[in-house]
Specification:
Layout lengths: L9 H11 L2 H6 L4 E2 L10 E6 L16 H6 L3 H21 L7 E3 L22 H16 L9 E7 L12 E2 L3 H17 L5 E4 L3 E2 L2 E2 L5 H4 L10 E3 L4 H6 L8 H11 L12 H12 L5 H17 L22 H14 L1 E5 L10 E4 L21 H9 L4 E4 L3 E7 L2 E4 L10 E4 L8 E5 L5 E5 L5 E4 L5 E5 L11 E7 L2 E6 L4 E5 L5 E5 L8 E7 L1 H10 L3 E7 L19 H13 L3 E6 L7 H6 L2 E5 L6 H9 L34 H4 L17 E8 L3 E3 L3 E10 L5 E11 L10 E10 L4 E9 L5 E3 L4 E3 L3 E8 L5 E10 L13 E2 L5 E3 L1 E5 L6 E5 L5 E8 L4 E10 L8 E6 L7 E6 L10 E6 L6 E8 L4 E10 L6
Parallel strand pairs: 2-3, 3-4, 4-6, 5-7, 6-9, 11-12, 11-25, 25-26, 26-27, 29-37
Antiparallel strand pairs: 1-2, 7-8, 10-27, 13-14, 13-16, 13-24, 14-15, 16-17, 18-19, 20-21, 21-22, 21-24, 22-23, 28-30, 30-33, 31-32, 31-36, 34-35, 36-37, 38-48, 39-42, 40-41, 41-48, 42-47, 43-46, 43-48, 44-45, 44-47
Length: about 950
């Protein structure tokens, strides 16, 4: 069998194997769980092992800092090392359990951190597309290995495309105008694919411009043109069923699956291990002629190419990765790497000189001070070094004291106090004891936005809700796909509260048997409780802090609560209980350090104003405490820098579903306000001086390169880390440009007095933007400010570079179609799909919505227009789209087209109308009369009579 011959070219081997398969066998290979084919010696294969920052869901494995924390190291070499270690552990698990542990890993996530309220913020790297691409490429390279022939693992980029909200994620559309698409969203995916680091991509749940992402023409039109290799594209879990389900884009599942296959989806992640529904739907699509065997063959070829590159069909001894065994899992080298990654990820946000500590006694306080949390995609911790443990290990048992800082309460109902079983395994929570004995005490963890978790003092286990609604104290922590351990205490007046269980949206009642159950549909039917304070956590923590030299307050989020997959945040505020704890401790001891350990930014304005020192890290994995202690005590310099903006409050953010960062001034690229902490921010324990910024040339052609050099000197008395950052800004342009844009960085470690010269290569082509007038990138003739500094807003030196590029000419609508999506500005409109696999259109989202085109050259004059239009609502049928000149509201009317009624989503009609007054260079506006009126493109006819 030729496909078994490793000396044959890969395409020939794949073609040989595909040719030996029956149609039924090939269809079977399109599901996540691919059945064995014994007659050809093919074993089973499964896509998808989660490996975001360690191997997840398979048992104890090395847990590294969350992805956003890895990125804050600004150290791609380190990120690649982490990726390599994770890849080794995947191979180790696969060695002992090959059928359960897939070598196709679903990592990294390269979705941009456009909005810090996104529930999955910790999974991404940065709000900047270029930096995300750098880190995604580094991690992918580590996962794939460096063998010239074999993949260590097959990295899969998640999630294509425009995915940055959990709220209604399966039914909301991420609206991406062309510039946002090409300048912001696509580059982060392109870099790892073009570098050959990532070999697969996962499509996202959302729609993009009104079209399900799983049907995006960009899968074939962009993703696959970035590589000559077969790029496998997998669906997200149950997402293919949404096409004819929640999204209602196709009438039934065979049609939806067929559309996904034609669009470029190769592997369907549906129904867990049961491949039968997928096979049945694709078979029905074949029988109905919606797809043919060539569509199946194309997808199967991509799936099998990945398996070949993993070495499945070659002699075992030929592939060096087959020698990796389970001994590598959580080995000493990986533990040390986890510590180093956690250390470099810590960001010093503020320091008035209190840090590094030189003290003998610290009080370590807070709900995160003596715990390390796992998130949904982290591995199972083999061990955990907490902040408190890390400091005890450095200072000794008498050098650090601990207090959790949470309130302990009792809940009294008319039938008695709620109490919990004191056995470790827990049991039903009842409300029938007459006194508030210790088994009736509950610790309250405030995770923000009114959400709390209750831990029973009786056995130290959290209270959760069983499938039958019974409250039981048997949970280690809040967790799971559905978190059943969170409640709200809803005020009912007269000092009473009721317990609202979030997961079931039910209220808690005490039954006739006194057992508490979440079974009431509304608060009126719930059992009322009086909350009695047993222990004031903030008061007691403050008393402990008063006797210490320094207080270290560790706060943040629980990764399974308020901001996680399926759940966005509504606010950036610290949980109220944590903020109150911080203020109480600071009042008792002004030498208070705030340590935020979280999956995302918080608005910690009060702390920044009042505290001498503030640090942040993501959830740092198993070595977090050792890393934190080394930074706090000055064994290591804080090397982390922020990869997203920290805002003063959520009021500074646009709507979560507004993806047009250009129009709404979002991210550090366009944000015009003053952030709490800017992109790129992070302090050192020493000082650095920048000098002698020089350009190799002050002018460059559009295809040229210029070297930018700067000298950096450590002017302090300690060895320290500095991240030298290069930004540019185009001073004048036909379009709105970023206020600043990262173009390069270099991480340095310098001894006192040491100087280094940092040189960047700046390609003029990288200064291009997407020109909507021509549908491609353009480098304008312009001057650019070259900025070098410590962060996006802490610029030390600037210079000017002149670029000899192009001057963008006016549009000539009589020479070709004017696509609605390529507008220069809009209000009250949204991008929509034209045809299933084609271009995008624009529809009105509200009455009087409009789009505009600047500098349209009508020449001697246009006499008529033909508009491709449709109606997406009843109100739109018969509505007018008015063509105005110079102004969308008051400009002279050049013409009017009427939108006819439509029978389906893609029922388009070309409507003609006369045009008057459109001559010379004018701004053109299309004003929509009613929501749902949609325009794809316009074509204009030149006034022949005016020619000469």
């Amino acid at each position: 069998m030729l496909f078994r011959d490793p000396d044959q070219p890969l395409p020939a081997r794949v073609a040989d194997l595909v040719g030996r398969l029956t149609l039924a066998e090939k269809v079977g290979l399109l599901h996540q769980y691919q059945a064995p084919i014994p007659r050809l010696g093919l074993g089973p294969f499964r896509t998808g092992t989660e490996a975001l920052h360690g191997l997840a869901w398979v048992g104890p494995a090395t847990v590294f800092p969350q992805a956003v924390g890895l990125a804050t190291t600004w150290n791609p070499d380190l990120v690649r090392e982490v990726g390599s270690a994770v890849g080794d552990e995947v191979r180790g698990f696969h060695h002992k359990d090959p059928e359960r542990i897939s070598l196709n890993v679903w990592a990294p996530v390269v979705n941009l951190l456009r909005d810090p309220r996104w529930g999955r913020n910790e999974e991404g790297y940065a709000e900047d597309p270029w930096l995300t691409g750098v880190m995604g490429t580094a991690y992918s390279n580590g996962l794939r290995g460096d063998h010239p022939r074999y993949l260590k693992t097959a990295p899969t980029l998640k999630h294509f495309l425009g995915y940055n909200n959990e709220t209604d994620r399966c039914t909301t559309s991420s609206n991406l105008p062309p510039r946002v698409l090409h300048e912001y969203e696509l580059p982060a995916f392109r870099a790892p694919i073009e570098a050959g680091a990532a070999v697969a991509v996962m499509a996202s749940y959302n729609l993009v411009n009104g079209r399900p992402a799983h049907l995006s023409p960009l899968i074939e039109g962009e993703l696959r043109r970035w590589t000559a290799d077969d790029l496998m594209v997998v669906s997200d879990a149950a997402a293919a069923s949404n096409i004819a389900g929640a999204q209602g884009y196709h009438t039934d599942h065979p049609a939806g699956y067929a559309a996904a296959l034609r669009a470029g989806i190769d592997s369907f992640t549906e129904d867990d291990a049961d491949s039968n529904p997928t096979i049945e739907r694709l078979t029905a699509a074949l029988e109905r002629g919606l797809i043919d065997e060539s569509d199946v063959d194309r997808a199967v070829r991509r799936v099998l190419s990945t398996r070949f590159r993993l070495g499945e069909f070659d002699p075992a001894e030929a592939n060096p990765y087959n020698a990796v065994t389970a001994e590598v899992i959580n080995c000493a080298a990986h533990q040390e790497l986890a510590r180093e990654a956690a250390r470099q990820s810590i960001v010093l946000l503020k320091n008035d000189g209190l840090l590094p500590l030189s003290t003998t006694k610290v009080a370590v306080i807070g709900p995160l001070a003596d715990t390390v949390y796992e998130d949904w995609y982290s591995g199972t911790l083999p061990y955990a070094v907490t902040a408190y443990t890390g400091l005890v290990n450095r200072l000794g048992a008498h050098g650090a004291v601990f207090h959790e800082g949470v309130d302990r309460i009792a809940l009294r109902s008319s039938g008695g106090y709620a109490w919990a079983v004191d056995r470790q395994v827990g049991g039903p929570v009842r409300a029938d004891v007459p006194v508030a004995a210790p088994e009736a005490w509950f610790d309250v963890f405030d995770w923000g936005e009114g959400v709390v978790a209750l831990r029973a003092s009786a056995n130290g286990r959290h209270v959760g809700v069983d499938d039958d609604g019974t409250l039981v104290n048997d949970r280690a922590q809040p967790g799971g796909w559905v978190v059943t351990e969170t409640f709200r205490l809803v005020e009912r007046g007269s000092g009473h509260v009721v317990l609202h269980h979030l997961a079931t949206d039910r209220y808690v009642t005490a039954g006739a048997d006194a057992v508490l159950r979440a079974d009431a549909e509304d608060a009126e039917r719930a059992t009322e409780f009086t909350v009695e304070l047993v222990t004031d956590g903030a008061r007691d923590a403050a008393a402990l802090a008063a006797d210490a030299d320094v207080a270290i307050v560790v706060v943040g989020n629980h990764p399974m609560v308020n901001g996680r997959e399926t759940e966005d945040r509504a606010s950036l505020a610290l949980p109220a209980g944590q903020e109150a704890l911080l203020k109480a401790v600071h009042a008792a001891n002004p030498r208070t350090v705030l340590v935020v350990s979280s999956s995302y930014p918080y608005a910690v304005g009060w702390a920044d104003e009042h505290l001498p020192a503030v640090l942040w890290s993501s959830h740092g994995g198993q070595e977090y405490g050792h890393a934190l202690a080394s930074v706090l005590l000055g064994d290591a310099d804080p090397g982390g820098r922020l990869t997203q903006t920290w805002y003063q409050s959520a009021a500074e953010l646009p709507d979560l579903l507004d993806y047009d960062i250009i129009a709404c001034d979002a991210t550090y690229l366009y944000y015009r306000g003053t952030p709490l902490y800017p992109f790129g921010h992070g302090l050192s324990y020493t000082t650095f001086e920048y000098g002698d910024l020089r350009l190799q040339a002050t002018e460059v052609d559009a295809d040229g390169t210029v070297e930018v050099s700067v000298d950096v000197t450590n002017t302090g008395n300690r060895t320290g880390d500095e991240v030298v950052q290069l930004y540019t800004r185009q001073r004048r342009s036909q379009v709105k440009q970023p206020l600043r844009q990262l173009r390069g960085f270099r991480k340095l470690t310098l001894a006192p007095g040491e100087r280094a010269t940092v040189t960047f290569e700046l390609r003029a082509a990288d200064l291009a933007f997407w020109d909507v007038t021509r549908g491609g990138p353009v480098v304008e003739t312009a001057r650019h400010t070259i900025q070098v500094g410590r962060s996006s807003l802490d610029i030390a030196l600037t210079a000017t570079l002149s670029v000899r590029g192009e001057v963008i000419a006016p549009r000539h609508p009589v020479d070709g179609p004017l696509r609605a999506i390529d507008n220069d500005g809009y209000a009250g409109t949204v991008p929509l799909d034209d045809v299933p696999g084609g271009i995008d259109a624009v529809g009105a989202a509200e009455p009087a919505g409009w789009i505009g085109f600047e500098r349209v050259d009508f020449g001697a004059g246009a006499s008529a227009v033909a508009a491709r239009v449709t109606s997406r609502s009843r109100e739109a049928a018969g509505a007018r789209v008015t063509l105005r000149l110079d102004d969308p509201v008051s400009g002279p009317v050049a013409g009017t087209v009427t939108v006819p009624s439509a029978t389906g989503r893609h029922d388009w009609t070309e409507v003609r109308a006369p045009v008057t007054g459109a001559a010379g260079v004018r701004d053109l506006y299309l004003s929509f009369e009613a929501p749902g009126a949609t325009v794809s493109y316009l074509t204009f006819e030149e006034n022949k009579e005016s020619g000469g």
